[in-house]
Specification:
Distance between the termini: 73 Å
Number of strands: 8
Radius of gyration: 39 Å
Helix content: 55-70%
Largest sheet: 5 strands, mixed
Strand content: 5-15%
Strand order of the largest sheet: 2-4-5-7-6
Shape: elongated
Structural class: alpha+beta
Length: 333
C-alpha cells in the first residue's frame, strides 16, 4: 500500500500539475511509466519479504505435524508480485490522477467563468463611462447655445469649462501628456478665474511659448495653481494678487507661484492638494524634482524645479500613475 501511495501522490502533485496541465503529454507519459515500474518493483519487494514472512508465520502453526508446503519457484513469485504491484499502482495511481485532473479542470473552468464575468462588468463600466461624459457635454453644449444669446461672458465660461473637462476626461488617461497641452489647460483655468474676479485681481502670468516634445504627468501642476486662487485671492478682501511664472530650459521646468494672504490669516495648513502633488512627484519623478513651499506673513510662495523627459525618453509608469490618480483631488492646499 505504501508504494501505491507514493505513485498516487507523485502523479497528483508533480506529473498532473506540472506536466499534463502544461501540455507536456509525452514527458508526462514517460514519467508515469517509470513511476508505475518503480511502484510495482517496490510492491513486489515488500510482498516477497514482509508479507511473505507474515504469511508463513501465520500458516505454519496451523499445518498438521510433518506436513510441508511446496515452495513456489522464485521466478514465479517475482513475476506474480510484480504484476500484482503493477495492477495496484495503475489502478490507484490512475484513480488519483483522474481526480486531480477533474479538480484542475474545474478550477480552470471557474477561473474562466470569473474572468468572463469581470470582462462583462468592465465592458458595462466602460459603456457607462462613455455615456456620462457624452451626456455632460451635450448638456453643456445646450447651455452654451442658450447663453450665447443671453450673456457672452457666461457662454465663454461654459466653453472654457467644457474644454477643461474634455482635457481631464480624454487626455489625462495617458501617463504623460505634451507639456504644451498641460500649460494650455492651466491657461484656460486661469482665464475662468479672471472672469470671476473681473478687474479686482492683480494677476501676473508668464509661460513659455514653446515646449517642444517635452512631456509631463497630467494634472500635476494644476493643484498648485488652484491653491493660489482658492487659498490666496479668494481669502483677501482688498487688493488680491497672484504671480505665476513658468519657465522651460531644455527639459528643466521651473515654476514659481506667489499669492498674497489676508492679514492675520495665520500659517497655511498643508492640505490634500499639495500633499497629493508631492506624493505624485515622489512616485513619478523620484530624484528629479525640487519642491519648496514657503509660508510667510503676507504671502505664500511655491517653488518647483522639475526635470522632464522628451517624448521618446518617457519611461512608462502607467501603473504608478493610475494608482496615484485614484487619490488625486483638486481640493485643499
Amino acid at each position: 500500500m505504501v508504494p501505491h501511495l507514493f505513485a498516487a501522490y507523485t502523479l497528483m502533485y508533480i506529473v498532473v500539475p506540472r506536466l499534463v496541465i502544461s501540455g507536456l503529454y509525452i514527458r508526462a507519459l514517460e514519467i508515469s511509466v517509470v513511476i508505475f515500474l518503480i511502484t510495482s518493483v517496490l510492491a513486489a519487494g515488500l510482498s516477497m519479504t514482509v508479507i511473505e514472512h507474515l504469511r508463513q508465520v501465520n500458516i505454519r502453526p496451523k499445518l498438521p505435524a510433518g506436513m510441508m508446503i511446496n515452495p513456489t519457484p522464485m521466478y514465479v513469485q517475482i513475476g506474480e508480485s510484480v504484476m500484482a504491484g503493477l495492477r495496484g499502482s495503475i489502478t490507484i495511481g490512475g484513480l488519483a490522477a483522474a481526480i486531480k485532473l477533474m479538480k484542475c479542470f474545474y478550477e480552470r473552468q471557474q477561473a474562466a467563468l470569473r474572468l468572463e464575468q469581470e470582462r462583462a462588468r468592465a465592458e458595462l463600466q466602460m459603456l457607462k463611462a462613455q455615456l456620462h461624459p457624452h451626456f455632460l457635454f451635450n448638456t453643456l453644449n445646450n447651455i452654451y447655445s442658450y447663453t450665447q444669446e443671453v450673456s457672452v461672458i457666461a457662454s465663454n465660461m461654459i466653453h472654457g469649462l467644457s474644454e477643461l473637462l474634455r482635457y481631464m476626461l480624454y487626455e489625462c488617461n495617458q501617463p504623460f501628456v505634451p507639456l504644451h497641452k498641460e500649460l494650455k489647460m492651466i491657461a484656460d483655468y486661469i482665464a475662468l478665474e479672471k472672469v470671476r474676479y473681473d478687474e479686482h485681481l492683480d494677476l501676473s502670468v508668464s509661460m513659455p511659448a514653446e515646449s517642444g516634445k517635452v512631456r509631463i504627468a497630467p494634472l500635476l501642476l494644476l493643484p498648485l495653481v488652484e491653491n493660489c486662487f482658492k487659498h490666496g485671492a479668494s481669502k483677501m478682501i482688498t487688493n488680491p494678487w497672484i504671480s505665476i511664472s513658468v519657465t522651460l530650459n531644455n527639459t528643466i521646468l521651473r515654476m514659481k507661484l506667489v499669492n498674497g494672504k489676508a492679514a492675520n490669516s495665520g500659517p497655511s495648513q498643508l492640505g490634500i492638494g499639495t500633499a497629493n502633488t508631492q506624493k505624485r512627484l515622489e512616485l513619478i519623478y523620484p530624484g528629479k524634482y525640487e519642491f519648496q513651499a514657503v509660508d510667510e506673513e503676507d504671502m505664500y510662495i511655491v517653488n518647483l524645479k522639475l526635470w522632464l523627459d522628451q517624448a521618446d525618453q518617457v519611461v512608462e509608469t502607467k501603473d504608478i500613475e493610475d494608482e496615484t490618480r485614484e487619490n488625486f483631488q483638486l481640493s485643499d492646499r
